Each structure stands twice: as structure tokens, then as C-alpha cells.
Amino acid sequence: MSNVGNLKELFSSMVFNEKVMKERLPKDTYKSLKKTISEGSTLDLETANVVANAMKDWAIEKGATHFTHWFQPMTGITAEKHDSFISPLGDGSIIMEFSGKELIKGEPDASSFPSGGLRATFEARGYTAWDPTSYAFVKENTLFIPTLFCSYGGEALDKKTPLLRSMEALNTQALRILKLFGSEAKRVFATIGSEQEYFLINEEHFRRRKDLVLTGRTLFGAKPPKGQELEDHYFGTIKPNVIAYMHDLDEELWKLGISAKTEHNEVAPSQHELAPVFSMANIAVDQNQLTMDVMRKVAKNHKLVCLLHEKPFAGINGSGKHNNWSISTDTGENLLDPGKAPEKNKRFLLFLVAIIKAVNEYQDLLRVSAASAANDHRLGANEAPPAIISVYLGTVLTDILEAIEKSNGYVSKELEKVKSVSYVPEFIKDNTDRNRTSPFAFTGNKFEFRMLGSSQSISGPNFVLNTIVAEELKQFADILEKADDFDAAVTDVIRKVVRENKQIIFNGNNYSDEWTKEAARRGLSNLKNTVEALPSFIAEKSVKLFTSHGILTEKEVFSRHEILLESYWKIINIEALTVADIVKKAIIPAVYKYLAVISESTLKRQKLALPLDFSYDLELVSKVSALKDKLQSAVNALDTAVAAAKDIENTEKKARFYSETVIGLMTGARVCADELETLVSSEFWPFPTYSDILFAV
Ligand code: ADP
Ligand code: MG
User: Fold this and answer.
1) CA of 216: how far to CAs of 212, 338, 368, 403, 571, in Å?
2) Which end of the chain is less congested by CB atoms within 10 angstroms, N or C?
3) Residue with the nearest Cα to atom 23 of ligand 1?
4) Relative to the CA of 275, which ligand 1 atom is closest?
5) From the CB of 259, is ligand 1 less than 6 Å away?
């Protein structure tokens, strides 16, 4: 925490941002770069050369020796390929060089990144193209240049491209609406603040758990005597080693211009959360990727491991990412700010109902945007939002919309005041209470989409969100631009949308069984896992949506679907192999050793010919023995299934087989192993247990 006195200087000190550009670039260059950034005009090579040179000089001052195009392939994590600035002069000396060409375009060998059939195997070439809308930065002595990644044929192979395209679509359609309301705004953009949950565990424990090392989650582990039932961890006092980690993390993130702001303990033991201040969507996506990367690296310095997996421990809360999303203008307005009298704020209500309609009509797409093998352990379980999508509005907004629908006048209620103790100042209750169970909740001046998994890129859910809202705004603008009486037409649109979409609004407890039944009655979809959700990505309606707004071509939609299916079964395949490996090489041998000890001890004592009852001893031996046999047979069945899966050619069928058969067999083996863990002496158990891991940090 040495530098915190200089926080102002520290913040963004490693970022080639506006301020640095202004200082370091000739006026003309700065102007054309700004034009490129704000209007998307292409940058000529001459300007790029000047920018590249200034970037290089700045980066070298910050200690950089290398540069890398930094991109976000479909693996969901980021990729980089480092080149040094060094250029030999031929006389044994060197100069440090970086050209505009190197800044604008890179040519990584793309053959090892998933393309879902977009790139023939013989065509390994792919391009990375500089994205000037996201700032370059220096990390680990390297200048990082944010880029987009596409195939030789120009098809998007990354997570960023559709996001940027969706921001354009949202901008275009929202501006049409704003113009009708007489707004001066020239640019509209989505803003995102993503709260990131994570676990911190001891490095030593991590190293000894092959399942964590290979798959990011524990594949075994009996329920510990103490879990999270006392609810004593949530917002609890943060332990000194965790505080030290959080401080270091903040400092590293601040240097990169990431405004990490809130940090607290989460519900589960060893679980924590970090929230940054929100920013423009494309920046937020990059920064969340960086945050996850820095979280992992800083943990190493503290002999800790940061787990970002959605469900590292069964029976203990998993980790998600709350995606706070809103729409702002270049004139500094938040379009989802209801103001003091939302009932009179037609513009706000119009945007609000656009979102309600979007969520209702594209429930399945939103669902699929948060679907992954890892997140399947959370969604639908009792801790996270259920797999059913609904919108929480709170009573005030629900009442206002109902009044419009029924053409009743809305009677504004006096805002309730909260008074806890006589001398504590009164404060006014928020317009929306916090409904923690809703998957898509209005929280004051933004929506919070809560289904996202902790390790996923936030790009997918946000390009879907931007696009579906753009689509609804387009439909509204098509009507309203032709209206004679604009005011009346706006009210009509709002009324019609509420009437036709109100089934998606639900303010109650999303975790209750009644809601599942009620949602079914309302006809809301309930896609329980990834394999069930994925077909909606390639449904005709989705393809039409994506192609009509220029977000993804049909080919790109299908390739992405293929990649999602493939990554799904591959993850479960690795898990299945890991289960079998751990059982055979660690658990069974440990059980043999323990069995030998208890059997011998029984035998020896029997030889004493004392009047003793050996029924407990014999029972333990036979119970452990029987469980061991059951475990071995469960693993045999798993091995057979995994071998059979190899012959399934069709990716869809393969994914379904893993979902319907392999997962069940893995669970079967786990149940036996976990029961054995409760019987076998801890001295013999081959790896740290949940109690060891969860309460150590
Ligand atoms: P909670 O845990 O109660 O949901 P936090 O304060 O932890 O709330 O996080 C709220 C998140 O929402 C922060 O990242 C914040 O920056 C973000 N946020 C606030 N306003 C907006 C907005 N207009 N657009 C997007 N995100 C926002
Ligand atoms: Mg939240």
C-alpha cells in the first residue's frame, strides 16, 4: 500500500488514455484519432505511424520492452503474442521500433483457436485489428494493444466484434427515439458495471487437489460439518491476509485505470466480491477480462489461488457476475434514470418498456448468453437466479405501468421514509427495494442481469442485451416517426407493450416452487441447462435478429453455436477423465491402505481371545469395502461411457450424451467417494477436504 498516498497519480498510470494522447500526440494526429474513436472513421497509415511511435516511447518509459496485440478469442479468455520492440541495426546495435502497420494489424497463427468451422484447417491465417476505442496499456513490461480477431475471410472469431457491432445498433436506434423527444444527444452507449465474485484458497491446498488444478472445481468433497448455514461470512470482517490481497489487487487494477471500488466478503466461506465503477460497454468488457487476469496473478504473490469457476465447491454457493447495465448519452444523461416523477417521464417509460418487451421476446437468447457447463451447476439451483427469466420492477414502476395499461390516472404515493433509531437521520426508501432473487432486476437507474457466470466473458450477454433492445427501439421508432400526435402515440406504444408483455414482470420470490409453477402457467421458458438452451441461439428468430442488425452473419451465428457445443462436451470430458484418474490413482489406493489397517487391527484383537464384540469393527471393514467396490464399478461405467462418446460424430448428439449420461455417472462415482471420505481416517485421505480448504484463508 506504499503508493496510495499518490492515488491520483497511480490511477490509470499504465494506460495510454485521452490525457496521455493529448499530451503526447501532435494536434492533428490527436484530432484524427479522436474522430476515429468517436465516429468510427478509418485511420490512415501516416497517422497510425505517429500514434505508434508515441505509444512506443510512452510504453518504454513505463518499462515496456515488448508489445502484444491483445484479443478475446472464443475460448472466453484473452490471448496475446509478445514481440519485442527491438530492431537490430546490422552494426551490432539496436533501435526500438514500432510501426503504424504493427499497431493496426497483427497476424497470429489462428489455427489453434476455436472457429466452429469458419476456418478450414489449411487456412491458419487470422488477423488481429487494433480497436482504437479501447485504450492500450502496459502490464508486465509489455504494451498491450486491444484488438479484434477475425479470420482470413473477415468473419469474427472473437467476443469483442459482435459487442462493438451491437453498440452501433443500439446507438443508431436509440438516437432515432431521442431525436423524436428533441434531444441534442449525438451518441448513445450502453454502460456496464460487473460485480465479480471469486474464491480465495491456499496455494498449497490447491496444488494438492488435482481436480481444482485440472478443472477449476472440486469433483469430490463431502459436505463439511460447517458450511455457510450460520451466514457469518457475508459482509463479515475481512481477514488480514485477504485484506492484504484486496489492497494489492486494487492497486494493480487502479494502475490499469480500473476503478475497483467495493470489496466485501460474500455468502460462502472464502468467497468475496469486487465491484468496479461502471464504464462504457466495450471498456467494461476489456476491464473485466483484465480484472480476472490480475485477480489470479496477484493471488500468487500472496500464496493464494483465486478461483473464478462458477461452482468450485458443491453444496456451497457458487460464483456469478452481476451485470449492471444501462444506456447513457454523450450529453451525460442516463436514459434509465426515472427522475422524481417517473409517471410523467415518457421517455424513460418508453425505454423501460422497450427493455421489458426485449426480455420477454428474447428470454431464450438471454438464457443462452449465460449458459455454460460450469454455470449449469448454479442456474436453477437454490442459490442463484432460476433458469427462468423474469423482470423485477418493484411496486412503484409496476403500478405506473398498470395505470397506463388500464388508462387509470396514477396516484403517486408519498415515498416511504425509513427511521430506525430516533437519533439516526431519516432517509427515503429507494424506489425499488432490492429483490435479490430476480434474474433481471431494475435497481434504481439500471438493470441488473444476474445470471452470468463468474468466469465468463461479459461480452456475450451484453451483445445480446444491446441487440434485443436495439430491435425493440427500432420497432418503436418505425411507428413513432410516422405518428401525427407524438404524445398520444408514445402512450399507445407503452400501453400495448405492457398489455402484451406483462407476463414477464414478477416482483415476488424467484426461488420459490410456486414461481416455477406460476411461470409455467404464464408460458415463460425454463431451459434447465446448456444443452437445452443452445438450440435457441440458432433459431430462425435469433438468426434474423442478429443478421438484420449486422451483429453476426448467419455463418457466424452457426459457427458460434458449434463452438459452444464443442466447448461444453470437452469440459465435461476433461472432468470425467479427471474423476476416473483421481479415483484410480488416489482414492482407491488410500482406501486399500485404510482397509488394511482396520482389518489387521481387528484380526490382532480377535487373536487375543477376549470376550469382545467385533461387530462394529467388522461393520466398518465391510462398509468401506462395499463402498470401494461400488466406487470401482461406478468408475468402470464412467470409463465405458466416455469411450462410447468418442464414436459420436454429431456435436449436438455428443453434447447431449455428456449432459444426459456422463454427468450422471460422474455424480454416481462422487457419491461413493464422498461417503468414503466420511469413513476413512483423515490421515489416509489423499487430498485436503472441504473443511481444510474453506476455512483456511
Ligand atoms: P449491489 O451489490 O448492491 O448490487 P454494488 O454497489 O456492489 O451493488 O454494484 C453496483 C454496480 O452497478 C457497480 O459496479 C456500479 O458501478 C454499477 N452501476 C451503477 N450505475 C450504473 C449505470 N448507470 N450503468 C451501469 N452500471 C452501473
Ligand atoms: Mg448486485
Assistant:
1) 4, 42, 22, 50, 10
2) N
3) 326
4) 14
5) no
Q: What is the DSSP letter of 586?
A: I
With pLDDT > 70 as the criterion, what percentage of the chain qualifies? 93
- Ligand 1 atom showing the smallest separation from residue 336 Cα: 23
Domains of the chain with CATH codes:
4-158 (3.10.20.70), 166-221+231-552 (3.30.590.10), 568-694 (1.20.120.1560)
* Any ligand 1 atom below 6 A from CB of 525: no
Task: Note the pLDDT of residue 382.
Answer: 61
Tell me the best of 355, 446, 449, 452 to mutate to test the pocket of ligand 1, counting ligand atoms within 8 Å of each CB and taking the most: 446
- The C-alpha atoms of residue 152 and residue 428 are separated, in whole angstroms, by 57
CA of 697: how far to CAs of 38, 233, 245, 374, in Å?
Answer: 46, 12, 11, 24
Residue 315 has pLDDT above 70, yes or no: yes
Tell me the pLDDT tens digit for each residue of 68-113.
Answer: 999 999 888 898 888 899 888 888 888 888 999 999 998 877 677 8
Q: Is the dihedral of CA 81, 82, 85, 90 positive or negative?
A: negative
pTM, 2 dp: 0.93
**Are 453 and 374 a contacting pair, CB within 8 Å?**
yes
Structure confidence by residue, pLDDT tens digits, 425-458: 554 455 455 678 899 999 999 999 999 999 999 9
How many residues are there in the chain?
697
Who's near 561: CB < 8 A, 6+ residues apart? 116, 534, 537, 538
Residue 252, φ and ψ in degrees, nearest 5: -65, -40
pLDDT of residue 1: 45
Please compute the mean of the pLDDT values over residues 400-414 and round it to a whole number.
82
Distance 434 CA to ligand 2 centre (A): 9
Residues with CB under 5 A from ligand 2 (ion): 195, 322
